[in-house]
Amino acid sequence: MSTDHVNEPEDELPGKSSEPDERTPMASEHWLELKLPPVVVFGLFAVVMWAISQYFPVFAVEIPFQYYLTAFLMIIAIWISIYSLYLFYKNRTTVHPQNPGDTNKLVTSGPFRHTRNPMYLALSLILIGWAIFLSDLLALMLMPLYYAYMTRFQIIPEERELQQKLGSEYEKYADRTPRWL
């Protein structure tokens, strides 16, 4: 975490109301915030999905064109990831999700025009593709838990740091760009 800014309570930030909304990060901190790298969370969910499909196949279904759907989602996710990483490197800002305070520039082009979190969206597309590949509805039903965990313990803390570091520039971006889609 960067030490060149003062941690102020959320309600003391200029232009912020005390009412939370979709783009207003929660002020309370939790010990899990920014602790597990997103790729680890992704891996844990993928393993749990596989275990469910193997040991609890009660919701196994046949999905038409499952391999094509899986491949399509994987290709889209890989493209989004590579393009997003390219934009981070091109703009010489951090890609490290545990240190959002190291961000020195807000990237708003490419996939970032449509979502504030394209790389997390890409991971979720891979998980959806994985659930389709496994042909298990229960595995697919884990996706809301993935979104909830990532939003609460990764995205909201990142947004809090970006708001503190970039101020109104980030606030304007958050106003016009959805968190997920």
SSE diagram, text form:
Layout: H1 38-55, H2 66-90, H3 118-134, H4 137-140, H5 143-166, H6 168-176
What would your notes on this structure say?
The structure is a single chain. This protein is mostly helical and 181 residues long. The protein has a domain of 116 residues. The two termini are 27 Å apart. The N terminus is likely disordered.
Element pattern in H and E: HHHHHH
- Global shape: globular
C-alpha termini separation: 27 Å
Strand content: under 5%
Mean pLDDT: 87
Number of strands: 0
Radius of gyration: 18 Å
Residue runs with pLDDT of under 50 for 5 or more positions: 1-21
- Structure annotation, total helices: 6
- Major sheet attributes: none
Percent of residues in helical segments? 40-55%
Class from helix and strand fractions:
mainly alpha
Short account of what is shown:
By secondary structure, the chain is mainly α. The protein has helices at 38-55, 66-90, 118-134, 137-140, 143-166, 168-176.
Tags for this model:
single chain; 181 residues; mainly alpha; 54% helix; 0% strand; disordered N terminus
